[in-house]
Write a structure and sequence with these properties.
By secondary structure, the protein is of the alpha+beta class. 24% of the residues lie in helices and 39% in strands. Helix 1 (3-13) runs antiparallel to helix 2 (44-60). The protein is elongated, with a radius of gyration of 17 Å.
């Protein structure tokens, strides 16, 4: 079992869902970020519980050459969409995406399945297969 699978099992054991694992560099800090969700929303106590439970796993299988800071948090209201399950969970949300031709689109995600999504822009409904999407994220109009 690899590190991500071990983390996923631990998160699910806390009645939460592993959204993504991201390794980033922020100034001189390496951050190993575990993004989690939960039906009804994730709270700080649940993130702390998950952090305590996955810390020993990371001690045994150190990511980033062992030089990292662990963060467990929600993916946030404006979150990256990478996998079909991200899109499926975001149906009805406002989404911005860039396709392979680097054309940018903004609209409401009407539907998503394992193969494609449908985005309703101001002028049209456009279908994208996942291999056509360069990047995507939800957005919030403040």
């Amino acid at each position: 079992m690899n590190l991500e699978e071990s983390i996923k099992i631990t998160v699910e054991g806390c009645d939460a869902i592993l959204y993504d694992i991201v390794q980033v560099k922020d100034h001189n800090d390496n951050i190993y970020r575990v993004l989690v969700t939960q039906v009804g929303g994730i709270n700080l106590d649940k993130c702390a519980e998950i952090s305590r439970l996955i810390s020993p796993i990371l001690d045994l299988n150190e990511p980033m050459n062992g030089l990292y800071r662990l963060e467990v948090s929600s993916p946030g209201i404006e979150r990256k969409l990478k996998f079909p399950q991200h899109f499926i969970a975001s149906v009805g949300d406002k989404v911005k995406l860039k396709d392979l031709s680097v054309t940018k689109y903004r609209g409401v995600l009407l539907s998503a399945n394992e193969d494609e999504i449908v985005l309703k822009t101001k002028s049209e409904e456009k279908t994208f297969s996942y291999d056509q999407i360069l990047s995507a994220s939800t957005y919030f109009e403040w």
